[in-house]
Write a structure and sequence with these properties.
By secondary structure, the protein is α/β, with parallel strands linked by helices. It has twelve helices and 13 strands. The strands form three sheets. The chain has a seven-stranded mixed beta sheet, sandwiched between helices. Strands 9-10-13-12 form a four-stranded antiparallel beta sheet, with helices on one face. Strands 1-11 form a two-stranded parallel sheet.
Amino acid sequence: MTFLDSAATTLIKPYEVYRAVNMAVRTMASPGRGAYRAAEAAAEAAYECRRCAAELFGVDSPEKVVICFNATHALNIAIKTHIRPGDTAVISGYEHNSVLRPLKAAGARIQTAASPLFDAGAALEAYDRLLRPGVRAAVINHVSNVFGFILPVGEIARLCRERDIPLIIDASQAAGTVETDMTSLGASFIAMPGHKGLYGPQGTGLLLCGGSAEPIIEGGSGSNSRLDEMPEWLPDRLEAGTHNMPGIAGLRAGMEFVKKTGSANILRHERELLKQTAEALRDNERIRMYLSDDPSLQSGVLSFSVKDMDSERAAAFLAREGIAVRAGLHCAPLAHVTAGTDAQGTVRISFCAFNTKKDVERLVRALKKIE
């Protein structure tokens, strides 16, 4: 199988990830639950995962790195820390349902800073207009999971700092490729999954915390058991229950791979494959690609549509050819409404560090046969 759906999950992991998961299953219990070696090994692994993330993403203390189940879990914590019924939240036109649904559930008044696809200047202007007194929080998808559009997060973060508006960044598609630095951005929260660009296992995620946060799950934390409320300090306040130690160990190994390889090098490789794909499909009259004229505004994600064919049917055809892609609305209907692709959705291909030029060649050959 040629796997081109890494924006959903990087199926191909570094060998070190598999080894770390296996070792954790065999040797680790739960952190904070005992003085015996298996519990201590778990505590050490959890700390090393936090330390690695803090170093990779510019967090000033490992304790401000909270381990979550996924980015959705992390975003729910961030949003429900800031938003109460009736509060105003400003979002981009490219948000995922993991932002829209928690905001709606929290009773937020949502204002959308809509802007054309791949127009960073318009996105910044839209936020500039809406970030006014009374806004309780801003949320921004650093990189669109549908189109790979890299939004101007640095400039929007500056506006939020100047106007004292908390900023929540969804780094689900940025972490591991596009530079994300907590200190320079000054965000209130940055949420990310472990199983995409960080090459960790499914069921892992991180929430980088710029300050205090409110738990959405309460329970045992392995610390100060006499309290009948969650501890005040991070990360214990947000980590109730038993940790996913195999996932945490694997996530740490995935982040070490990213550090060793270099996020910029991974992004460069993905963009080279995207460029190869675009050049090979440029003369195919049935294919409409959603490409930026400025390569710096697009990650290794490419959406396209096939003339006279539903996107789901096109993806099913590619699956029969042994090529894995994602089609439809990608859990991000707002992004499709913004780009005008909501009627049929799109077919999305997304690369990772382990894809090759041969993968692109197989995709192009398959698309030439599509009927």
